[in-house]
Amino acid sequence: TMVRRGFILFLPQLVGLLVVTCCSMSIVYMLACTPKGDNEQLALPRVHSPTVKEGYEAILQDQEEQHHNYIISLKKQIAQLKAELQGRTDQLKSMQNQYPHSLDIQLDHSKPEKAQANLLAFLRSQVDKAEVHTGVKLSTEYAAVPFESFTLQKVYQLETGLTRHPEEKPVRKDKRDELIEVIELAVGSLNKPDGVSKAKPRVYTASDFVEGIYRTEKNKGTLYELTFKGDAKHQFKKIVLFRPFGPVMKVRNENVNMADTLINVIVPLAKRASKFWQFMQNFREMGIQQDGRIHLTVVYFGKEQMNEVKSILENTSKSANFKNFTFIQLNEEFSRGKGLDVGARFWKGNNVVLFFCDVDIHFTAEFLNSCRLNTQPGKKVFYPVLFSQYNPSIIYGHHDSIPSLEKQLTIKKETGFWRDFGFGMTCQYRSDFINIGGFDLDIKGWGGEDVHLYRKYLHSNLMVIRTPVRGLFHLWHEKQCLDELTPEQYKMCMQSKAMNEGSHGQLGMLVFKQEIETHLHRYKLSNKKT
């Protein structure tokens, strides 16, 4: 009985234990068979599980949906690229319609070679639209884009910026690298075999570079014209390059033979015999002895001092064995435009380069070559910007003596300025001068005639080469503004007179000279007391 009674007491505990065990097994089974959440990696169904087929179908459906979304995204990107490409094509077609004379350009993106050729054609159309092959008509004298000139060492510039230096060794790396690249490309082009000549070609180097000019048209590109020494004396190689907002492109490679190109220097004159003597010293050295391909035409107004001028001419003719001069005498009031016009029309020989000059001008043999190289009949006229000398007595007032003229002719901001408002010194072929109509002979006296001629060229299809040159100087002389001038001419004369005397700093020292001396006197007294 005691055993039965103990078993009866233990039976509820055993049943409870069995219930707990069954519940635990149920919980373990549920945890093993329940699917994972979204953020957990899906477990593959067990082989013998009833959910195998549904599990694989769910996984495949999820992957297919991801691929479908990726394809939709790619299609959107392709559509955007097609729209952008169509926009660029429409823009190019619009440009072609705007410039009907430019090259026919069509982009074919299915053929890379053809697309590259079309791009090259587009860049060449930029050359055609720029003022490279021919001039364009301009409205005013201020519309012309000036060139800047350069050598291996220096750049001669009009837009001096903050430095205010008319010449400089390029300190800006972009400008220095740009010009070095252009010179190296030109040298490489010269040394490239032409495939025609069997003779051993000459090897060009940067030392053969003589000078270059360049200018940038903001909406087209940069034009470079570089001159190199040729194979013989008086022969040159000229390379024209153009950078159409991209790689530099060779436009021309031509031989330029200037051995027979004569320059007729025309000088209008009245009185001023002493200045003419100084001019002839320069003419004899640079024009006769160094250059030798030159003619001089003097158009003299009135008779006062005429015999002295003729005597200077005759003496030069005898001593230098020089016969290439013409003396024309006019019995009328001085008119610079009339004198130059008469001198130009008097020439009866072949087409010749005319250099309109004054007796207070000093030029070098290098400038005469620049005059030839930058003129071309029916295509180009040359308007150099000369360097105007300040009053030597102001510049060198603190020196013991004024240096010789040769030492005075240096291009520095302390010694002078680029005379960018003057258009009187110019080179052009006689045929272009006659075809343009010459000077306005109604203008009398000083000033105005040169601007009218300059405007005529700007309004034509001729290319106007406007650049500062290192070999052309205006020598200082005291300027007299006569009462007979019109108010406009008198104003121009006085402005020119003020510009000629000295720089702002030098003129300021003269204006405040008394204050400076007073301060110096007080300073000396205070030092003595201490």
TrEMBL record:
Highest taxon listed in the record's lineage: Eukaryota
GO cellular component, one term: Golgi cisterna membrane
Membrane topology: Single-pass type II membrane protein
Top-level EC class: transferase
Compartments it resides in: Golgi apparatus, Golgi stack membrane
Enzyme Commission number(s) from the entry: 2.4.1.-
Pfam families, per database record: CHGN
Gene Ontology terms describing biological process: chondroitin sulfate proteoglycan biosynthetic process
Residue runs in coiled coils: 71-98
Transmembrane region(s): 7-32
Protein's UniProt name: Hexosyltransferase
Organism: Cinclus mexicanus (American dipper)
